[in-house]
Write the C-alpha cells for this entry.
Amino acid sequence: MNRPNEKGFTLIELMVVLVVLAVILKFATMSLNNNDQRRLASQLSVFKSLMQETCQTALFQNRLYGIAAEEGGMRVLTFAPMSRPKTEGSDNRAGPTRFEWRPVENSFVAWLFKPDNIQSTQPLDGPFTFEQPGWRCWPQGLVDQGAVTFRAQGRTQVLEWDVQGNFFEPNASS
C-alpha cells in the first residue's frame, strides 16, 4: 500500500495553526485593553496629585489657587495682584489693589483622555471666578466640590471629591 506523495497541509495542521493564531490575537487584544485601563488609571492618579498639590500650596502660601480645565489639559492658576504699569510722578499706592487670575509657570498638564463630563460647584460669576470650568483651592484648606468623568474604549471612570479634598470613585464600569 504505497500512497502517492501528496503535497499540502492536512486538516489537522490547518486547525492547529488557526488555534495558535486565535490565542495570539486574544492575548494581543487583552493587552491593548489593559493598556487603556492603565492609562485611564494613570490619568486619574495625575489628576488627584495635581489637585492635592495645588490645594496644599494654597494652604501653605495662604493664597487662592485654581485648576482650570482647558481644551488640551489642565492649568494651575493663582489669584494675584494685577501688575500696574509704573509711571513717573504718580502715586502707585492710590486706589485699592485689584486681583486677577494668572497662570502658574510650567503648570500645564495634558489630558491623556479628554473628560466627557466636568462638574464644579464654582459659581458662574463673582470676584473669584475664572472663565473655564475648574476648581478653586482656598487658603483655608478647602476646595470646590466637583467630579470628572473619563472614558476610554468603553470604560468609564468617575472621580468625585468633597470640599475637604477627599476623593472617591463612585463607579467604575467596563
